[in-house]
Task: inverse folding
């Protein structure tokens, strides 16, 4: 067992101190309740290990311009801070897509590889400090070449969110060609104003160029032309980063329709805090309530369902034990005590009825069971056919033996079908068909449990159930010697009434089971 939030255990310090002081029974009980609540707050859990799960995600690349011009204050507080907060808000809006973060000036820098863990992207974003970036200027060409190289093996276009003021780029045709080769869907968030603004340095002075002229940074009009050339999306800053992030998320969702299935590994836990909360509430009520009826309410909300499911499982296991001990009456009683019937319990109950010779009851339950498992379906069809045999409804038995064979090879279904294929209604005693050979179980308990959890589908014909199919199959009561005598009697009987020559009859003729002078 592990604690997911062990920091809450510090609350034990004042509780332990209070234990050493003067206290009465009520105070002691309250301290015990506080201990249980503290343990619950620390989230005790059983570690279940790594589990694999899949999710559908789109690939998005966020490229953030961190050049000196992004320090301009025409967008409050600065272009860079506005961009940073917009990305954080976008990560909150978009919780599942595969996101890569790149910072760029004259050269691109990968801050976070593609990941659906957006907290990692946030950490990478917060760790970036533009003060330590020494390179000047903005190079969109190098950025697009870098993205093209990373995206060279991609089969579908990725979305690129470019957040920049555009710098001094002026070669539209070269940029257009690079974007097309990069196999990306371009969305631009242009930060700045058309009129532009001066840029302050760290010491408060204004930035100047090599000719000692003030530098005025404005949105590069090339960005809008580039977006138009590559059929992208162009967006300027809204009133707040949150509003901007919502607009960006809508654009990215519409522009990138190609998603991929990503497999991730994640630790899973089974939390146990409910147990400590339950006992804390129970102890508190026992001390502060005089009537036991109030405790019933507590059990209703916290414990009844758990107790019922545990009791059902116990009755099912006891029913199986009784069944194996050939005590079918006790097995039936145990199964009737189950409050929430499952495929397992229903199939076991039908088996018990069958063994008690209540064939109509068994048949009714078999016909009500549904499952999508092929193996269980086959076992159920076999049992339905056996029930019809015991009720001397051989035509219906043939149908269900046939259904069992349609689902796969089954020697016992084929054997019984061969026997009843030769019967007229008055000849069942002669062939011993009322006791077909039983079939060994081929349905594992795990298959039954899995089938019980699957979504069932409504069919006009019965599906299969949840229990060992072989346990309810017709028992073999004729010894091998008697079968040989019956076969011999059929072969030697010259006056035996000739049967219609179905495919099954021809098969038996070839095996020598039927005397037929001119079979063809």
Result:
């Amino acid at each position: 067992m592990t604690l997911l939030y062990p920091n809450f255990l510090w609350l034990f310090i004042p509780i332990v101190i209070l234990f050493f002081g003067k206290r009465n029974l009520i105070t002691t009980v309250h301290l015990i309740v506080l201990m249980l609540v503290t343990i619950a707050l620390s989230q005790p859990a059983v570690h279940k290990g790594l589990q694999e799960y899949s999710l559908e995600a789109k690939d998005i690349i966020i490229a953030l311009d961190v050049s000196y011009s992004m320090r301009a204050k025409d967008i409050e507080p600065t272009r860079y801070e506005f961009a940073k907060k917009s990305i954080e808000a976008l990560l909150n809006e978009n919780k599942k897509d595969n996101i890569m973060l790149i910072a760029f000036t004259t050269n691109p820098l990968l801050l976070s590889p593609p990941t659906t863990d957006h907290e990692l992207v946030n950490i990478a974003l917060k760790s970036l400090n533009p003060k330590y970036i020494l390179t000047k200027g903005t190079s969109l060409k190098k950025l697009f070449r870098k993205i093209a190289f990373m995206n060279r093996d991609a089969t579908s276009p990725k979305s690129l969110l470019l957040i920049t003021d555009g710098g001094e780029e002026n070669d539209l045709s070269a940029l257009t060609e690079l974007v097309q080769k990069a196999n990306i869907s371009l969305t631009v968030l242009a930060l700045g104003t058309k009129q532009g603004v001066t840029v302050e340095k760290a010491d408060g002075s204004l930035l100047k160029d090599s000719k000692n002229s003030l530098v005025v940074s404005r949105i590069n009009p090339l960005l809008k032309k580039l977006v138009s050339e590559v059929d992208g999306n162009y967006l300027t800053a809204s009133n707040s980063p949150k509003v901007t992030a919502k607009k960006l998320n809508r654009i990215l969702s519409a522009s990138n329709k190609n998603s991929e299935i990503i497999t991730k590994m994640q630790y899973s836990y089974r939390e146990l805090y409910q147990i400590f909360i339950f006992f804390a509430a129970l102890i508190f009520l026992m001390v502060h309530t005089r009537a036991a009826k109030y405790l019933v309410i507590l059990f209703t909300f916290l414990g009844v369902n758990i107790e019922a499911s545990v009791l059902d499982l116990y009755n099912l296991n006891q029913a199986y034990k009784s069944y194996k001990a050939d005590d079918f009456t006790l097995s039936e009683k145990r199964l009737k005590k189950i409050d929430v019937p499952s495929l397992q319990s229903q199939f076991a109950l039908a088996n018990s009825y069958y063994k008690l010779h209540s064939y109509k009851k068994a048949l009714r339950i078999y016909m009500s069971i549904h499952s999508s498992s092929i193996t269980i379906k086959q076992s159920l069809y076999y049992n339905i056919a056996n029930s019809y045999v015991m009720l001397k409804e051989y035509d219906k038995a043939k149908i269900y033996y046939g259904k069992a064979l349609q689902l796969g090879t089954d020697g016992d279904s084929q054997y019984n079908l061969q026997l009843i294929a030769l019967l007229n209604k008055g000849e069942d005693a002669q062939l011993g068909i009322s006791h077909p050979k039983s079939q060994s179980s081929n349905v594992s308990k795990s298959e039954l449990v899995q089938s019980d959890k699957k979504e069932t589908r409504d069919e006009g014909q019965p599906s299969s159930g949840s229990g060992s199919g072989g346990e309810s199959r017709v028992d073999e009561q004729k010894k091998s010697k008697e079968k040989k005598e019956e076969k011999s009697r059929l072969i030697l009987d010259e006056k035996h009434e000739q049967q219609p020559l179905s495919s099954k009859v021809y098969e038996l003729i070839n095996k020598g089971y039927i005397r037929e002078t001119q079979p063809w």
Observations:
- The first strand starts at residue 2 and ends at 3.
- The domain at 59-200+211-258 is CATH 3.40.50.410 (Rossmann fold).
